[in-house]
Every structure is written in structure tokens, then in C-alpha cells.
Write a structure and sequence with these properties.
With about 100 residues, the chain is an all-alpha fold. It has 2 domains: about 35 residues, no CATH class; about 60 residues, no CATH class. It is about 70% helix and about 0% strand. The chain contains 5 helices and no strands. Helix 4 runs antiparallel to helix 5. The longest helix has 19 residues. The chain is elongated and about 55 Å long.
Length: about 100
């Protein structure tokens, strides 16, 4: 298991190194950069959608779902304030109030 962990760390480091080191003659074009700009929202959506909408393994879009209430509050606060601290704290507070 330790070998697998070390191998995964090396692969992660090397893939990041190829993109970040200035001496390597590798550059991403504008189309590639535009394509990669969608990766963070796609990954984050793939993480939060099952947590919010499938908390017990089945679809739950009822008002009694604390994950959904917390997510709605967090989205509203983020849209209104553009403040990550307020978004996090108020979203967590809403989640815990409806838990």
C-alpha cells in the first residue's frame, strides 16, 4: 500500500511539474486553456451534487433535507455577497439549524 501511495504522489507531482516549470518547452494554447477552465466547476459539481441531492443514497429534494437547505442558502449568500467566509459560515449554519 505504501508503494501505491508513493507512486500516486510521484505521478501527481510530475503531472503538475510539467505544467508549472518554466524551463520546459510546453505551453497550452488558448483553446486548451479555455477547455481546462471548465474542469474545476465540473469536478466540484461532481462532488457536491451527490452529497446534496442523494444524502441517503436516493434522491431527496424535500424541504426537510438539511444538505439541500444549506446548499441553497450558500448559493444565495455567494451570489449576493461574493464573500467566501460569509458563504461558508451561513451555509453551515443553515445546515446545522435544519439538521
Amino acid at each position: 500500500m505504501i508503494y501505491t501511495l508513493c507512486l500516486m504522489a510521484m505521478v501527481t507531482f510530475l503531472t503538475r511539474y510539467l505544467f508549472l516549470h518554466k524551463r520546459l518547452p510546453f505551453e497550452i494554447g488558448p483553446k486548451g486553456q479555455r477547455f481546462l477552465s471548465f474542469s474545476a466547476p465540473a469536478v466540484l459539481t461532481a462532488i457536491w451534487v451527490p452529497i446534496v441531492l442523494l444524502p441517503e443514497g436516493e434522491l431527496n429534494v424535500h424541504y426537510s433535507n438539511p444538505y439541500l437547505i444549506g446548499a441553497i442558502v450558500a448559493v444565495a449568500v455567494a451570489y449576493k455577497t461574493h464573500n467566501i467566509y460569509a458563504t461558508t459560515l451561513l451555509g453551515m449554519a443553515a445546515f446545522y439549524c435544519f439538521l
